[in-house]
Amino acid sequence: MSTTYKYPKIFKLENGKKLRNLEIAYQTFGKLNAKKDNVIWACHALTANADVLDWWKGLFGNKSLFNPDEHFIVCANILGSNYGTTNPLSKNPTTGQLYYLSFPEFTIKDLAATHSLLAKHLEINTIKVLIGGSLGGQQALEWSLAKTQTIENLILVATNAVHSPWGIAFNESQRLAISTDRTFYANQPDGGLKGLKVARSIALLSYRTYEAYSATQLESVNDKTTDYRAASYQNYQGEKLCKRFNAYSYWYLSKAMDSHNVGRGRKSITAALAEVKSNTLVIGIENDVLFPISEQKFLANHINDAQFSSINCAYGHDGFLIETDKLTNIIGNFLKESSDKKIIKLHKTA
């Protein structure tokens, strides 16, 4: 079911700025059981939407590990995204005009806070599994630290505790590309699309690997001097994003990713990770260029009793969306062990 929650109060951002008329678009699949203990909450990545059964096929869906027959699955479109939640192309209630670049900057903590508001609205106090990859993993980690809901099992995939200088440099390069498109400052819904196309091309180089391009874009002949498959692929992917997204949301969401640092407002990064109370599984991708596996090992080493697992995938960072069979096996075993531990604990306290 797809719907929108209209928050009746003023939403205060981490930076102190305020948003009126906050709307959160979300989708649910399956039914909440009587005990309200079958909630699976998925946090989506940069340009995805609330339809997790579509973009995480194989892990979510009928006959998948997370299926609507057994679980109540929730996925909310994040603040700033253009799939129904309040974003830079929403109307500013103060001026009556679209926000564009007057939209307030927000952080990963703000994304987590909106999830918490929605969960409260849905009368969900306990989440059986909170899962996210990449930017989604950053949200899931921050939400678990907020302690506004009980997160029984936390699954962090291809993500980190603080966004790296390397990741920020990639994001800034993309924003530089967007800002060279003068239409970005023209306050029109399709502003900055040429720049967004270039930004997407830059991003793809961080999502994929040398091996992936060699496997999918290698020329079959030796006499070409132009019109290469790899060049066509970059153009195609850039145009594809421009048809479904906007430059303003992309600009703000990339800045939100840069803001990710669980140590902000806390004693330290490691001290913050030690505060995670959920049964935690961290999954890394061995040849991830954007979120190197060292970042996931860091999470697992500093979250109490966290389990760590890795995936070998030629597609690099995008492997968290592609290698769903491997994820199903790893996560399925983790949840079975978690359930067994819970049963043993209940027997000991009985």
From TrEMBL:
GO terms for biological process: homoserine metabolic process; methionine biosynthetic process. Keywords: Acyltransferase, Amino-acid biosynthesis, Cytoplasm, Methionine biosynthesis, Transferase. Gene3D superfamilies: alpha/beta hydrolase. The gene is metX. Pfam families: Abhydrolase_1. This is Homoserine O-acetyltransferase. Residues 43-319 form the AB hydrolase-1 domain. It catalyses: L-homoserine + acetyl-CoA = O-acetyl-L-homoserine + CoA. It is found in: Cytoplasm. InterPro entries: AB_hydrolase_1, AB_hydrolase_fold, HAT_MetX-like. Transfers an acetyl group from acetyl-CoA to L-homoserine, forming acetyl-L-homoserine. Its EC number is 2.3.1.31. Homodimer. One of its GO terms (molecular function) is homoserine O-acetyltransferase activity. The active site is at S134 (nucleophile), D288, H317. Substrate binds at R200, D318. Belongs to the AB hydrolase superfamily. MetX family. It is an enzyme of class 2 (transferase). One of its GO terms (cellular component) is cytoplasm. Pathway: Amino-acid biosynthesis; L-methionine biosynthesis via de novo pathway; O-acetyl-L-homoserine from L-homoserine: step 1/1. Transmembrane segments: none annotated.
